[in-house]
TrEMBL record:
Example GO biological process: cytochrome complex assembly
Keyword Transmembrane attributed: no
SMART domains xref list: AAA
InterPro entries (alphabetical): AAA+_ATPase (IPR003593), ABC_transporter-like_ATP-bd (IPR003439), ABC_transptr_haem_export_CcmA (IPR005895), P-loop_NTPase (IPR027417)
Entry keyword set: ATP-binding, Cytochrome c-type biogenesis, Membrane, Nucleotide-binding, Translocase, Transport
Entry's Gene Ontology molecular function annotations: ATP binding; ATP hydrolysis activity; transmembrane transporter activity
Protein species of origin: Novosphingobium sediminicola
Taxonomic superkingdom: Bacteria
Membrane-spanning segments: none
SUPFAM superfamilies, alphabetized: P-loop containing nucleoside triphosphate hydrolases (SSF52540)
Segments forming domain ABC transporter: 6-197
Protein name, UniProt field: Heme exporter protein A
């Protein structure tokens, strides 16, 4: 029997006075990667933050039911908030998080093309370099469950392929991953959820 990484039931989301989606239930098994799709503004990032525990599910406007989210094991969220100190060199900014989460392996730093950037202040990094740094933080968290919000934005073609292989390896090693992205993803066995089917 496949072990469950996530069970989420009856999720509903309201932001301000705008209802986004309702009646969303999803399960994620160990080894599974799930692609969340949907047009701009539908609530993909909101769903990711909800699954990360940063945004509470809203009570359903009709049934009044408030959904539930249960993870097996820790999770790591990667979104546009990389959380790295803009005033610090990249190495020092990553070292701060290494004291919280654990170190980023040297081979990951090299593989992400960051080895020559460790003395560059985070604020001077390009968009793609900041994204690579955020991926380093993700790896440093050593979490079995990944939530990746637009992980390919700003990355060049080779780096996109590298991220796809990273996700594939993570899942092959028993991890689980949810990816919100407008881009198509070349990941074997990837399953898909179209948030438009739950839009209010
Ligand atoms: N803190 C907030 N307060 C009120 N409304 C918000 C808040 N954050 C987001 N929203 C609104 O919620 C809606 C969904 O936003 P969200 O970022 O989740 O969509 P998305 O599907 O990820 O969009 P995109 O594809 O453009 O990234 C948008 O209309 C947005 O303006």
């Amino acid at each position: 029997m496949t072990a469950t990484a996530l069970t989420a039931t009856d999720l509903c989301c309201r932001r301000g006075d705008r209802w986004l989606f309702s009646g969303l239930s999803l399960g994620l098994a160990r080894g599974q990667a799930l692609h969340i799709l949907g047009p701009n503004g539908l609530g993909k990032s909101s769903l990711m933050r909800m699954l990360a525990g940063l945004l509470p599910p809203s009570p359903d406007p009709v049934s009044g039911i408030t959904g539930a989210i249960a993870w097996d094991g820790p999770l790591a969220l990667m979104d546009e908030r990389h959380g790295l100190d803009l005033g610090q060199p990249l190495g020092a900014a990553l070292a701060f998080w290494a004291r919280v989460d654990g170190p980023v392996p040297d081979e990951a730093i090299k593989g992400l093309g960051l080895a020559n950037l460790l003395d560059v202040p985070v604020r001077y990094l390009s968009t793609g370099q900041k994204k690579r740094a955020a991926l380093a933080r993700l790896i440093g968290q050593h979490a079995p469950n990944w939530l990746l919000d637009e992980p390919l934005n700003g990355l060049d073609v080779a780096a996109c392929a590298m991220v796809e292989r990273m996700i594939e390896r993570h899942c092959a090693g028993g991890g689980a991953c949810i990816i919100a992205s407008h881009q198509s993803l070349g990941i074997p066995g990837l399953t898909r959820l179209d948030l438009a089917e739950y839009a209010l």
